[in-house]
Amino acid sequence: MCQYCSPDNPMSHHDYVFNPKKGRREFILDSMAAAGGLTAALGGLTLPNQAMAADEPFDEVVRIGYLPITDASALLVAHAMGFFEDEGLKVDKPTLIRGWSPLIEGFAAHKFNLVHFLKPIPVWMRYNNNFPVKITGWAHTNGSGVVIGRHLKADSFADLGGKQLAVPYWYSMHNIVLQMALKNAGLEPVIQDQTDPLKPNQVNLQIMPPPDMPPALAAKKIDAYIVAEPFNAAGEVLAGGKMLRFTGDIWKNHPCCVVCMHDEHTEKRKAWSQKVMNAVVRGAVYAQENKEEVAKMLSREGKRYLPMKAEVVLKAMTDYSPANYATPDAIKHEDWDVGRIDFNPYPYPSATKFIIDQLKETLVTGDTTFLKELDTDFVVNDLVEYEFVKNAMDKYKVWDKVKGVNPENRLEREEVFEL
């Protein structure tokens, strides 16, 4: 019998978790990344885009790699709605990848030329591994939360002392925001063996692939997790968990996943890159304006981009009612006018700066020397390509259709972070 299908487990992970053997492989890969193993693996890869000549034949097919999370909505909607073809582009069916490490590997090996990554991942790739990756837009805003197990009585982050929490990746917005919240509550994040005793004020963190989180919560292997949708909604619907806090209620309209491309395309194939981002921006705006339709489109009952049932994806996209999340009080800033997940593709420099500065203070494993040496202002301009997404938003006149835009200064904003 599967470990998650025991008689005292009220949910079946088969509703949304993939082949368990592959799940173990994902965990091994992510553990390798945490220990620096993936750094060595990436360092040994051949980087063909560094040696690409301008007159070499150009493969114009858009090849999308994505994880089964709503963060990928803009890319998936652009594919489903034919927006790439509208731009005159050829596009393959998007490839579902079950963990961040294999997605990174696939992108590094040029299996994919359009992906979504957790925002700190390209920071690590470009400045720790010298891999030529560019952020070309935001995949979404908000769209994550902290879910606690049904066995846990907690009303705030202060109640998480002595508990086991899972994060999807060390280099993630999730790890940054979670640790800031824990420290603010007087708790100490640690990374140690799960069997080692914890002090009452310590919280042990571990890496766990998103599909494994809800079943692990139901089985009480962890006490809580922070992750992207729809795995928070899955934790609520299928694992009996409760939302402790939405991250978009802590950091207003924050980025999480970003759209990434290779330098070779953004620098040498500008017309192609512009068309790609035109389609992505259209996908993002369509998702923002049609969340219910998009949820059904992405679900198992729709076009099957995500292995989740429509009811779970719909909750992940639309359920942001303060009445539904009063105990615990997961929404403290109703006046912020944010959604459970939103889609603004413009990559504001202030948010990149915030993430870089906070990442330097965040506990991760492996060698973090490269972080200490990073010049934040340099990274803001070197890592992100702003031209294509701005051009697309101008072309389709969508600035007023997304959230978080200052009409008097559309290209800048002030970061709001309140616990």
Describe this structure in words.
This protein is α/β, with parallel strands linked by helices and 419 residues long. It has two domains: 13-19 and 143-253 and 325-336, D-Maltodextrin-Binding Protein, domain 2; 22-44 and 60-142 and 255-309 and 345-401, Periplasmic binding protein-like II (D-Maltodextrin-Binding Protein, domain 2), CATH 3.40.190. The chain is 37% helix and 14% strand. It contains 17 helices and 15 strands. The strands form four sheets. The protein has a six-stranded mixed sheet with strand order 10-11-9-12-8-13, sandwiched between helices. The chain has a five-stranded mixed sheet with strand order 4-2-5-14-6. The relative contact order is 0.17. Mean pLDDT is 89; it is low at 1-56.
Topology (SSEs and partners):
Elements (H helix, E strand, L loop, with lengths): L19 H16 L1 H7 L17 E2 L1 E3 L6 H8 L2 H4 L3 E2 L3 E2 L3 H9 L5 E5 L1 H9 L4 E6 L2 E2 L1 E5 L15 E4 L5 H12 L3 E3 L11 E6 L5 H6 L5 E5 L2 H9 L2 E5 L10 E6 H6 L1 H20 L1 H8 L11 H9 L22 E2 L6 H11 L9 H4 L3 H7 L4 H9 L24
Parallel strand pairs: 1-3, 2-4, 2-5, 9-11, 9-12, 10-11
Antiparallel strand pairs: 5-14, 6-14, 7-15, 8-12, 8-13
Helix pairs in contact: 3-11, 9-13, 11-17, 12-13, 14-16
